[in-house]
Amino acid sequence: MTHFNEHALEMAIMELFKNEGYIYTSGEEIHKELSINYPLK
Prior knowledge:
This protein is mainly α.
């Protein structure tokens, strides 16, 4: 039995999304902006 490898799982999921036409964007590349309509907690 092989051990769970989180990195391999993440890469496999990203590959599945890529095959469906999604474009991967790193979290650091996503522009995040606070909106007045978004409630802050």
